[in-house]
Design a protein that fits this description.
Blueprint lengths: L1 H26 L12 H31 L2 H5 L1 H23 L1 H20 L7 H14 L10
């Protein structure tokens, strides 16, 4: 498992180079001409997203490297949260980049994503029944606060 963490650290360190180069290209743009003008708010948004991607990918690489070198189970326990953060930041960055290139395509992708999410939520057998969740919340509110623990004194 530690070998895989070492490979994961190398992969995420390599992936962290991509937003680094995008940040550098935002400040040193080699493109000239009328088609290369990017509005300042869009440029600031993407530099912020690239910085967030760089930080998350770098932190994930450091987490995997820590597990590969030290082998601590605490660092491996943080891996799912780090991978979710990577997926969220990279997904939002790519989606917003797609929306700025093609707003109609971004709208279509949004509608497809919402439809897919609702379809998956509707047919998920593990999802709790909303009526039961509301009933349990009502019972908890009616019963009041939990009793104090006499062993805490």
């Amino acid at each position: 498992m530690r070998v895989l963490s070492g490979i994961g650290a190398a992969v995420f360190a390599y992936l962290a180079l991509i937003p680094f180069t995008l940040i550098a290209s935002a400040f040193d743009n080699a493109c000239t001409g009328p088609g290369c003008e990017t509005p300042l708010p869009v440029e600031v948004l993407f530099v912020g997203l690239y910085v967030a991607s760089l930080l998350v990918l770098g932190a994930t690489a450091a987490l995997f490297a820590d597990h590969a070198i030290r082998g601590r189970p605490e660092s491996l326990a943080l891996a799912p949260a780090a991978l979710r953060a990577c997926g969220a930041v990279v997904g939002v960055t790519l989606f917003l980049l797609f929306c700025t290139i093609s707003p109609i395509g971004g709208l279509a992708a949004t509608l497809i994503a919402i439809g897919t999410w609702r379809l998956l939520a509707r047919f998920n057998p593990d999802a709790p029944d909303p009526k039961m969740v509301a009933a349990h919340a009502k019972i908890r509110r009616a019963s009041g606060p939990p009793p104090s623990d006499p062993t805490l004194n």
